[in-house]
Write a structure and sequence with these properties.
By secondary structure, this protein is an alpha/beta fold. It has helices at about 10-20, 50-55, 60-70, 80-85, 185-195; strands at about 1-5, 25-30, 40-45, 70-75, 85, 95-100, 115, 130-135, 140, 145-150, 160-165, 170-175. It binds glutamine.
Length: about 200
Amino acid sequence: MQVGVLAVQGAFLEHRIMLETLGISNVEVRLPKQLEDLDGLIIPGGESTTIGKLCVDYNLLEPLRAFGRKKAVWGTCAGAIFLSKQAHRDQPLLGLMDTEIDRNAFGRQVDSFEVDLLVDDLENQDQPFRAVFIRAPLISSTGSTVRTLARIDPYQNRPGGIVAARQDKLLATVFHPELTNDTRFHQYFIRMIEETNL
Ligand code: GLN
């Protein structure tokens, strides 16, 4: 299995380290032809407008859309925004996932936080996943083919909502599993890739 990590901007290295830990062969993707022969792709966190614009400049937009119609793709944070069909801003989106996104839903960088989440489908799902939110968005609405995997409860001034969702072979998390030592989300994505390859 070969997993690509989109490496135009953002936290791609941390995903690669996580994949290395799991013994999964992985490569950085910056050119359309690097998508060939991949079994799955991770789009990292960072700044979604920048990622989108760079993908336009690198002629990656259509190749990424074509890839995501056939293969497993996981977007974390800015990656989840880029996967969505609506972010209510003027920015290039892949539009692969039937999700609407509320960018910077929790406020500014200083309003970043961590929280213990219960996530459907993860191994040992009764054990919370420590989720790191960095200027994160919320998934404000989902289409009928999208399944919610995790929600966050409102807390003081902080809004609640959907923070992890899956639509067939597409996965979106608005937090950063690659910044923890918990490999369960990466393992989950690997299982998604295996299912897609069956
Ligand atoms: N705030 C960023 C955006 O809207 C996402 C932040 C992140 O990826 N950690 O694109």
